[in-house]
Amino acid sequence: MLNEELRKKGERAKEAAFLLSTLSTEKKNQALSKMASALEEQQPKILAANEIDMAAAEAKGVGKALLDRLALSAARIKDMADGLRALVALPDPVGQVEALWKGAQDIEIGRMRVPLGVVGIIYEARPNVTADAAGLCLKAGNAVILRGGSDALHSNIAITEVLAEAVLASGLPDGSIQLIEDTSRETATQMMKMNGYLDVLIPRGGAGLIRSVVENATVPVIETGIGNCHIYVDSAADLQMAEEIVINAKTQRPGVCNAAETLLVHEKVAGEFLPVIAEKLLQCGVELRGDDLTRKYISVVKAATEEDYQTEYLDLILAVKVVGSAEEAMEHIRRYGTKHSEAIVTENYSTARQFLQKVDAAAVYVNASTRFTDGFQFGFGAEIGISTQKLHARGPMGLKELTTVKHIVYGQGQARK
Amino acid sequence: MLNEELRKKGERAKEAAFLLSTLSTEKKNQALSKMASALEEQQPKILAANEIDMAAAEAKGVGKALLDRLALSAARIKDMADGLRALVALPDPVGQVEALWKGAQDIEIGRMRVPLGVVGIIYEARPNVTADAAGLCLKAGNAVILRGGSDALHSNIAITEVLAEAVLASGLPDGSIQLIEDTSRETATQMMKMNGYLDVLIPRGGAGLIRSVVENATVPVIETGIGNCHIYVDSAADLQMAEEIVINAKTQRPGVCNAAETLLVHEKVAGEFLPVIAEKLLQCGVELRGDDLTRKYISVVKAATEEDYQTEYLDLILAVKVVGSAEEAMEHIRRYGTKHSEAIVTENYSTARQFLQKVDAAAVYVNASTRFTDGFQFGFGAEIGISTQKLHARGPMGLKELTTVKHIVYGQGQARK
Q1: In a designed cystine with A175, which of A12, A214, A397, B186 is the match (CB 3.0 to 4.6 A)?
Q2: What is the pLDDT of residue B207?
C-alpha cells in the first residue's frame, strides 16, 4: 500500500501528465524559460536552503567529494538555469510521426511520439539533478516525481518550489514537478511500486541504488550508469593515438561511468607501449594494477586480481592486462564488461569491424575515447542518464528517450476479415 | 537462488545468444526452414505427445475452450511450419544501421540493431506458441527460454525437441531454443528473477499470469495483452460504417485482446443507432449491458455497472453507454481503458483529430475496427505479442521489437575535451 504522500502526488502527477501531453511546444518552452529565470531570481532562497544541507553534511562528517557534489553556488545555479534554457532550443519530440505506412486493407498507420506520462527519478546527492530532470521531463511532455537523497533535501525542496511556482505561473498544471519529501528508505521502496502512477522509474546514482531499484521495483525501470569500460590497444594500433585515448579515458574525469577502468594491450606492442603509457599515467597520478605479463614490462602497485577486473574504480586506478589476440581482449570484455562503453585502438580494418560487431555494449568505439558516451557529446543536446539495459533505450538518453509511441490509424470503415 | 535447471539453461542460452548474435541471415533462414520441415516430418511424435496432454486434460475435466487451444492436428502443425517459413522471407533487423550522424569533434555515431540476447517467454496452454516464439526469437538472433503451461507440457517438450534438433543440425548452437520442463509455480517465479541470464521476459496469457510477472519479475518485462477496448460512435458518425465496425470489433473474434468490450454512443445518434445495432448484435448472440440512458432506447440483459466498464469480457458481452459529447467518451476511455486499442467513428475532422491526439493507447483508430491491432494486420509479417506498456515497444511487436540497438562509433583518435 502506498502512503498518503505518494498516493496524492501520484494522482496529481497523472492529472498533470494528461494535460502536459497535449500542450504546445511554445507553452512548454515558455515554462522552461520562466523556470530558468526563477532559479536565478530566487538564488538567495536556494543558497540558504543549501547552506542548511551543507552544515548538516559537514556536521555528519561526510567526505569531500560528496560535499562538493552537494554544494550550490551562484555559478552552479546559473548552470542549472542555462541547462533549462538550452532545452528551449531543442526540437520537441512529442507529436512527431516517425513513419506512416499502409497495413491490411489499406488502413494507414502512423507511429507518433507521445510522452511516457509520469516519470519517476530517484537520485542521490547532487541537487542540480532536480532542475535538469524536471526540465527534461517537462519538455518531453511528462510529469515528474523526484526523490532525491536526504543530504540534499532542503536544497531539493527549495529548487522544486521555485520550479513548480514558475510552472504554475506559466499556466501549466501543478503536479507537473513534484518532490517526495519523505526521504526514508521505506518510502523509496514504495515509490518503486507505484504501478498505475509511474510509467517509468529512472535511478541515477551508485551501484547500490541501482541494484535496490532493480530488485524492488514493480514499475518499469531504466537501469543507468554502471560502466566497467575497457580500452583495447591492438597490435595494429597507432600507439601515439592509443596513448592519448587511454590518458583521456582514464584521467579526464575518472569519477564517471564512461571512464576507462581496464587497459588491455596486445602482447606484440606491450613492450613498446606499456612503459610509455605507464609513465604518462603515473604523471597523472594513476595507480596501476597488472597481471603477470604486464609486470614483465612495467612495475605496478599491485598484481591485478579477479576482483580488479570486475571493479568500476571511479578513481585514478587502472587495471592492466596483456592479451595474446583481439579475440582474447573481446573475451575479457565479454566476461568482465558491463555493456556500457568499450573501445579498440587499431588501424586494422578487419579487427576494427570484428570488434564493432562482436562486442555487445551501449557504445562500441574504434579509435576514440569512451568518454564520448554522453548525451551532449552524442549531439542530443541533453541527457537524463545513460541506459545500460537493452529495453527501450541504450546509451545516452535525451528527450526522445523520455517519450514512447502510439499508433494512429486512419481508416475508411475497414473491418477485419 | 536459481535452481539447477534454470541456471544450466541460462548459461547455455547466454552462450548460444553470443554465437547467434553474429550469425548471417542466410544461416538463420536455413535453420528456420529446417525447423519447419522437421515439424512436418516428426508430426507423429508431436501428435502422440499431444494426445497424452489431451487425455490428461480431459480427465481433469478442463473446459472446451481450453481443450481446443491445447489440441494439435496435422493442419495445426502445418500452420506452425508455415509460420516458420514465413519468417524466412522477412527482412533481418539485425545489423541494420538506423542512423549515422556526427557527434562532438566529428566522431561518427551509428545506431545499429542488435539482438536483445536471451528472451524468456512464459505462456499458457497453446502449444503453437512454442514454435512461433522460437522462430521469431531465432530470426532476430536471440536465444529463447520457453516456459509453457503444465497442461501442454508433453506437446511442448516434443515440439522443442524437434526444433532444437533441427537447429543443431543447421550448425547453430544448442541452447538456442530451450524449454523449462519444471512447470511448478516456484520455478516460474525463479525464472522471473533470472537477472544476468534473461535480457527480457515476455508473458503471454491471461491477466493473472501477467500480473504475477509484473509483481515478481526483477528482469525487464514487456507487458502484453490486456485490452479493455472501446468503440465511440460520434454524433457525426456514418452510422452504416459504425454498425460494421462495432459488429466486427465485438464479434469477429470475441476472445482476443483487441476485441471491443464497451460501446459508447453520442446521445444525438443514440435513438437512431442503438435499436439497429442492438438487433444486429443480438443476432450475433451478443449479450448487452447498458446504463440508464441506453435502456431508454433498447432493452438490455442487465444494467451496466462500474464493474462492467472495467471488465475485459473476452466473450460475446458488450457494455453500452450513452455519452453527451466526445469529451465524455474520451474521459470514459481514460478512466476505464487499458491503453490497448480505442476507436472513434466520425466524419468530423476536428473531433477525429482530437480523439487521435488525446486518447492514450497503443493504437488509436478513426473509422476502423480495433481488431487491426495485430502484427500481421500492421504489416510486420509476424507477432510475438502486443505490448500494452510504454517502454521499448508499444502495440504489436514483430522482429524489430525483439532487438535493441548499440551505438557504433568511428573515430580518428578523438579524446574528449
Answers
A1: A12
A2: 84
